[in-house]
């Protein structure tokens, strides 16, 4: 049931060329069974931030209620001494596109924090993979 994580029908995303490959990459690596799962932050009725690991890759998801908020996520759960690439998929209403999904990449390690803004009823998806 991977498609249930999408805010639209899969067809909307697949028809959009600029996020198609990124979305297919996430869907292809998203699994039902995880090697590890951690609740990083959250308050009932307000927000939740969860990290899940499959092999060496981590997937972080964050959502909020009707309030916008700033979230800071320490990456202390990553293996010490390794470099990772974080690909962040976030709501960006400034984009002139049907889905308004912005994409950023950052090099991170276990001493870094990711800071991001959640729009009202918004969310973020992050894939973190080791740099090879």
Automatic annotation (TrEMBL):
It comes from the Bacteria. Pfam families: GH97_C (PF14509). InterPro entries: Aldolase_TIM (IPR013785), GH97_C (IPR029483), Glycosyl_hydrolase_97 (IPR052720). Residues 34-128 form the Glycosyl-hydrolase 97 C-terminal oligomerisation domain. This is Retaining alpha-galactosidase. It comes from Saccharicrinis fermentans DSM 9555 = JCM 21142.
């Amino acid at each position: 049931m991977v498609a249930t994580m999408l805010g639209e029908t899969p067809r909307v995303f697949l028809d959009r060329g600029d996020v198609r490959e990124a979305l297919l990459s996430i869907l292809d690596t998203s699994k039902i069974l995880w090697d590890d799962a951690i609740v990083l932050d959250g308050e009932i009725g307000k927000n939740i931030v969860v990290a899940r690991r499959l092999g060496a890759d981590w997937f972080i998801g964050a959502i909020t209620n009707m309030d916008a908020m700033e979230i800071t996520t320490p990456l202390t759960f990553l293996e010490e001494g390794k470099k990772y690439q974080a690909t962040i998929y976030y709501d960006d209403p400034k984009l002139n596109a049907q889905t308004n999904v912005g994409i950023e990449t950052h090099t991170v390690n276990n001493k870094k924090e990711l800071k991001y803004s959640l729009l009202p009823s918004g969310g973020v998806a992050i894939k973190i993979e080791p740099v090879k």
